[in-house]
Amino acid sequence: KAGVTQTPRYLIKTRGQQVTLSCSPISGHRSVSWYQQTPGQGLQFLFEYFSETQRNKGNFPGRFSGRQFSNSRSEMNVSTLELGDSALYLCASSEVSGGSYEQYFGPGTRLTVT
Amino acid sequence: SQQGEEDPQALSIQEGENATMNCSYKTSINNLQWYRQNSGRGLVHLILIRSNEREKHSGRLRVTLDTSKKSSSLLITASRAADTASYFCATDDLGQGGSEKLVFGKGTKLTVNP
């Protein structure tokens, strides 16, 4: 099976702009989770989608949003970008929802906000 | 918030030596997972240990779990240069939506010198 893919791999944006990141899970996986990774805060959970429904959400402002499509592909959107949003954004898929199961990670999207 | 805390933050050893990393967590868990991340890339799942298990092996990896001390250790035996990476423990945490999410520690950066 093909692994989790994320597009784009690298992105440079300006403060105030918005950005959309895409994640295609492993075929058959219905759960997609998003994480933000920064040197200072480490890996932080953003949200999880399962069967097109947001199941869980981390402690991020409303500028961070996401959605999942019927084919399980997921997008996350960040509006009104701030310098602190510069990070590696990782998505992970799993067969079932929740943290009790192995998650398969994509290579990440490196977002730089200038 | 961080659930797991790895120790040490950085570890440098010679090829052939064993590497031990520790993880402590704060709340009750159903399971604990270990992941590896090569520089700036996605995470790779290594092993999952459930709360009713005390030890688990996978190839050169040995994981222990002590729920009374809320701690886990990852042992890599006969290390290789290719083991150079950051290692993260992750625990399940009941999130706002009532479904579990994975909460990661800040990781141990392992360097194996040839």
Structure description:
The complex is a heterodimer of chains A (114) and B (114). With 114 residues, chain A is mainly β. In chain A, 0% of the residues lie in helices and 53% in strands. In chain A, the strands form 2 sheets. In chain A, strands 2, 4, 5, 6, 9, 10 and 11 form a 7-stranded mixed β-sheet that branches. In chain A, strands 1-3-8-7 form a 4-stranded antiparallel β-sheet, with no helix packed on it. In chain A, a hairpin with a 5-residue loop joins strand 7 and strand 8 (74-78). Chain A is globular and about 35 Å long. With 114 residues, chain B is an all-beta fold. Chain B has no helices and 11 strands. Chain B has strands spanning 5-7, 10-14, 19-24, 31-37, 43-50, 55-58, 61-66, 71-76, 85-94, 100-104, 108-113. In chain B, strands 2, 4, 5, 9, 10 and 11 form a 6-stranded mixed β-sheet that branches. In chain B, strand 9 (85-94) and strand 10 form a beta hairpin. The A-B interface holds A 4, 33, 35, 42-45, 48, 50, 54-59, 88, 90, 92, 97-108, 110 and B 1-2, 30-31, 33, 35, 40-45, 48, 88, 90-93, 95-97, 99-107.
Brief characterization of the structure:
Chain A has 114 residues and is an all-beta fold.
Topology:
The complex is a heterodimer of chains A (114) and B (114).
Chain A: E1 5-7, E2 10-13, E3 19-24, E4 31-38, E5 42-50, E6 53-57, E7 64-68, E8 74-78, E9 87-94, E10 104-105, E11 109-113
Parallel strand pairs in A: 2-11
Antiparallel strand pairs in A: 1-3, 3-8, 4-5, 4-9, 5-6, 7-8, 9-10, 9-11
Chain B: E1 5-7, E2 10-14, E3 19-24, E4 31-37, E5 43-50, E6 55-58, E7 61-66, E8 71-76, E9 85-94, E10 100-104, E11 108-113
Parallel strand pairs in B: 2-11
Antiparallel strand pairs in B: 1-3, 3-8, 4-5, 4-9, 6-7, 7-8, 9-10, 9-11
Total count of helical runs of at least 4 residues of chain B: 0
Q: What is the chains' assembly state?
A: heterodimer
The low-confidence runs of chain A, each spanning 5 or more residues with pLDDT under 50, are none
> What Rg of chain B is obtained from the alpha carbons, in whole angstroms?
14 Å
Largest interface here, residues on each chain? A-B, 31 and 30 residues
Q: How far apart are the first and last residues' alpha carbons of chain A, in Å?
A: 37 Å
Distance from first to last alpha carbon of chain B: 36 Å
Strand portion of chain B, in percent? over 45%
What gross morphology of chain A would you assign?
A: globular
Please summarize the sheet with the most strands of chain B: 6 strands, mixed
Please summarize the sheet with the most strands of chain A.
Answer: 7 strands, mixed
Mean pLDDT of chain B: 90
The H/E string of chain B reads EEEEEEEEEEE
The strand count of chain A comes to: 11
- Helicity of chain A, as a percent range: under 10%
Computed over alpha carbons, the radius of gyration of chain A is 13 Å
Structural class of the helix and strand makeup of chain A? mainly beta
General shape of chain B: globular
The count of β-strands of chain B is 11
Order of helices and strands of chain A: EEEEEEEEEEE
Helix content range of the residues of chain B, please? under 10%
